Predict the structure of Chromatin accessibility complex protein 1.
Amino acid sequence: MKMSHNSSGKDDQASGSKKPISLPISRVRLIMKSSPDVSSINQDALFLTTKATLKQGLFVQHLALSSFNNGSGKETNTLSYSDLANTAQETDTFHFLTDILPKKILAQDYLNSLEQMQEEQGADY
């Protein structure tokens, strides 16, 4: 993902009033239905969730900028998954995202860790 941080407000002034970016209702419905816990979606809940995406957009922007500023891609002007995962791990504000943005590990490292946990559990019994 390419990132650019424009510190001047010239683009904001030139465009006049900017329309806020939000997800279409159909996309929000699709995201909500992707959860196994959701069986049906109330229209009012769908509408309010769609409106909330405006505020969430600000949150996503804050997460992306924090990750970019603290990440390794400043030289190449990029934002990587590992930048996001590190921000989630290291920043108290974003710590609740650690389950959603876990640090990547190699499959072999995971299998070794799993095997070690099983051995420890076997030794306890």
